[in-house]
Give the backbone structure.
Amino acid sequence: MRSISITGATGQIGTELTMALRERYGDDNVIASGLKNIPDAVLRSVGHFHFIDCTQRDQIEKVVKKHKVDTIFHLAALLSAVAEDKPTLAWEVNVGGLYNVLEVAREYGCAVFTPSSIGAFGPSTPAEMTPQDTIQRPTSMYGVTKVSGELLCDYYHARFGVDTRGVRYPGIISYKAPPGGGTTDYAIEIFTSALAHKKYTCYLKADTMLDMMYMPDALKAAIDLMEADANRLSHRNAFNVTAMSVTPEILAAEIRKHIPEFEITYEIDPVRQAIADSWPDKLDDTCARKEWNWAPDYDLNSMTADMLRNLSDNAGQGRTSDACLT
Ligand code: NAD
Ligand code: AKB
């Protein structure tokens, strides 16, 4: 990876992945892009930044040509709750945008990293130790776009030899940039609310079990997979990866170890609850462990302590998500 372009670089994952890649490959070699918001000052100050709407192929191509890009981290997308609210736009961005990226990658010989999600599974998928290769009949628009994306990436690799790679991320927990409108966002809101108000009203039921991962592990997964020896990869585009499985009540109990007076109450959002109920409880990530040595560094205990420490220092506070500006 000598010249890297990132779409969706001002989102929750993109903000941090841009900085991690710049640290590793050099500020000038990592070209960030966002849709239409003013990017974070740090993103703008240390490297190139362009506005790219991924539904416009020429905007992707212009940046790839100008900077002789050899690798694209394609993060631009609508997350599950937003996608359910705007299904047409979700298809255009999540599938149409990815198609444009893959077409440019095919023409200019770029490698492509695209995240899929636990959202690519559905109610007929085995929920416990969900296998790498299994039934995928998601019932959300987000899930439909994610399965389509996995298949498109497989196709571009098999048919055109594009070096496509990706993981199925679980809910990502972080403190620097806000989440973009997903079903798992509660697992971030719970921390900010616990610190600010010592209470949180959760929109998912107390016993809703979902896979989660702390941001440093999500960044490590993306970079390690893109650096992995291609000869070892028999799966490419949708590796199951996970770090912990939690429910709101388990997370609340962990936070209570640090903030004993913390209280959680529940007001269920039927849309997000239905999406969460259709997703697995716990992924089996054996393939990622075998094929590119995946292993998370953070568990529930260490993630919670680190989140609370960093949020107490006020990091990342005061920003609003840019995900709905589309
Ligand atoms: P996010 O919503 O925070 O960021 C996505 C970015 O895409 C936003 O900055 C938004 O402005 C941008 N965008 C929307 N439409 C666009 C368009 N037409 N052209 C260009 N940019 C556009 O999302 P994220 O959490 O950073 O997710 C990044 C990727 O990881 C997505 O593919 C998402 O599905 C996947 N993922 C995320 C999580 C998670 O918990 N954060 C979990 C699983 C998978
Ligand atoms: C969402 O909830 O939409 C995302 C995801 C798990 O894909 N966080």
Q: What stands out?
A: The CA atoms of residues 17 and 219 lie 6 Å apart. The chain has two domains: 4-170+214-240, 171-212+244-290+297-316.
